[in-house]
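Posted in: Protein Modeling Q&A

I'm a second-year student putting together a small comparison for a lab meeting, and my supervisor asked me to include a predicted structure for MurNAc-LAA domain-containing protein. I've never done this before, so apologies if this is the wrong subforum. The sequence is pasted below exactly as I got it from our records. If anyone can share the structure token output, I'd also love a short note on what stands out.
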Amino acid sequence: MRTKVSKVILILSFLFIFNFIANQIVIAENIDLELERSSTDEEVSDNINQSEQDQDQDKDQLVAKEVDSEDSQDEMTEKNEEKLKESDEHDSYKEEFQVDNQLDQSSEGLAPEKSEEIDGEVINFNKTIIESVPFEQGTKGDHVVKLKKNLTKLGIGNYPLNPSDFYGDSTTKNVMVFQRYYGLDVTGVVDQQTLSTIETNVNSRYQVGQRGDHIVQLKKNLTVLGIGNYPSNPSITYGDSTARNVIRFQQSNGLIENGIADEVTLAKIEDMLILRLGTSGLHVVNLKQNLSKLGIGNYPNNPSDFFGDSTKNNLKRLQTYYGLAATGIADNETLAVINRNVNSDYQIGRKGVHVVELKNNLTTLGIGNYPANPSGTYGDSTARNVIHFQNSFGLTQNGIADEVTLAKIEKLLQSPYRIGQRGSHIVELKQNLTKLGIGNYPSNPSNFYGDSTVNNVRRFQLYYGVHPSGIADDITLNKINDALQSPYQIGQRGSHVVELKKNLTKLGVGNYPSNPSNFYGDSTANNVRALQRYYGLNVNGIADEVTLAKIRETLQSAYQLGKRGQHVVDLKKRLTRIGIGNYPLNPSNFYGDSTVNNVKRFQGAYNLNASGIVDEVTLQKIDEVYRSRVVKIFLDPGHGGRDPGGHGFGVNEKNIVLDIALKTSDYLLRNYSGVDVQLSRVDDTFIELEDRAKLANNWRADYFVSIHTNAWIGKGEGFESFIHTTRVTKEAQVRQKEIHDYLISRIGIVDRGKKQANFSVLRNTNMPALLIEYMFIDNYDENKKLRDQSYRSFLARITAEAIANSFNLPKK
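Accepted answer (user: helix_wrangler)
Welcome! Here is the predicted structure, written out as tokens:
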């Protein structure tokens, strides 16, 4: 019994103690709750202390919360910094932050309290948060987590999906990378400007899920830059493929790769779309094709997509031509000018009344031959006429009546120096033309610009190499002024006048001493007139640009003392043929004193300026005398090369007749004057029959002689000659009779007769032609003669004599 009572007492005691402890716990919890309500600062302090204790107890746990530790961020941060250093400096263009983020202007640029989530991770911060919660090293909180997620989205840092809430060294470095990349002050502290820039780019309208025309334009721009393969009308959606293409662009241009077309990426795209040195892309190809169409540059049909030095220079040419600043950069103004002219209404395929007007205007300016009512179609002939006009006035030749061409046409049509105009300026024009030897106006001409004035202006323009429009345009007036201001006219003095006089003396004009005066007087003007008259120039006594050019050209002639060349050999041969000089058959190629003297002899004989220089007048006269006084004999030794001709007793016809022909030529040239000889071949060469005739025709020979030997199974003998069967002229018959009879009378063998045949060389020559068959090479007795070199020389001599006798050639 006593034992049971003791057990009850023990249980009751235990229950009392348990209840007391429970009450104490409740009291303690109430005290803690009260403390929490009354002292927030104390709670914060406790929490900090507790955090410090936690760090002391297990620092590794804290580090693990931080993206595999804050220290693990360093490598990625350094990579971002290196990428930023390698990339070009970016002059970031920024749209208004308020516009991009749809802010109320009254909010002073602050982010709204709420922001649409993108990928569930974008958080915007307002000014109150910035001011109350610090964004700098050492701070902690959800705002740091959100910061890290936004940096990760922008491609900066390598945080895990759930980064720590601690703002450590690596976060500071990543913020600095961000600030440097977006052109902000690099502090490592997230101030209002940094946060605004983060939000602007994180909330960019250019990222996965966005839609709109701005994305269409982005895709087109990427296509131009060679990124992606979008159709001509891409969709408005920014999908995964667009993000991948943006990453490709960012990667190739050293940008941070985030797949968002952020401010820096858009700025780089815009910069690369500007056509300048170093740019690449389809827009460069298009530029080159347009330059080619406008007549600038010489690009192939499929030019490269690289903007190099030549493209820069061509673009400068275009800019200068169209009156733009010659920067070599295709800015908007330049592109607008290119576009207007490439798409001009004045080019092949266009139609309209404006084309009719253009044709009428070209006709007025002396270009083309359009009817009174031309068609309204701009065709190939119109393009050619426009090119003619452009070439005439020093414009770029593209066949398009572009802005410059139309302006030039308009200026010419509005000129006060055109048919129907009146005024004192026209009187002055006529007087100036008279001074320059153009026209025959009285001392006081009328003030009317009529047909005769048009013709005289055209004469002047043709003479000075200006398009002969008959309108005295700026180019024409400048040429007139230059000629009238020449320092080579009466009253002028200077060393240039001394030089002119010496040059005139060299050309056989005037009789100046070795050191003439420096004064341009009447005698000098008269000598200049004599020279102008001699060379068919305008006779005005002024050594104008055309006269001076003619003097320089003549003094640089290849036919003067000291010169060498085949042309000198040919000159000597021609002089010999017309009886001047006694050069060997193969004269040297040197123009020496004897050649100078022979040329002077010729010039004196034909009343030319005896300068000893073969100028164009002398050369023309030599040719004229040569054609009129020299008989041109073409000798054709038959066969040759692979064609041996007849054969007998070890001898081929081709070799026998070549030897006779060469010796005939030599004898003619050595013993007769007024004759020239050319051969179809001078060695063992095969020449087609038609080509033999063609050579003679091209040389314009006076007579053709084809030399052969005969053959007929060893049974033939004698001499015969042939002319053509149907193309028989009286001269051909006379020449055949004279030459045949002369030869047969001296050879003393069987005369087989004067015959006719349809041989190719007789049929295809344009001059009288004769074919000779001397003897039969397969006849033993006649072969024996043909084998004898001295007999062949005899045949050559009598053949030359027969030709000379027929043409009455004088012996030397």
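A couple of things worth pointing out for your meeting: Residues 44 and 50 are 10 Å apart (CA to CA). Residues 353-413 form a domain with the Muramoyl-pentapeptide Carboxypeptidase; domain 1 fold (CATH 1.10.101.10).
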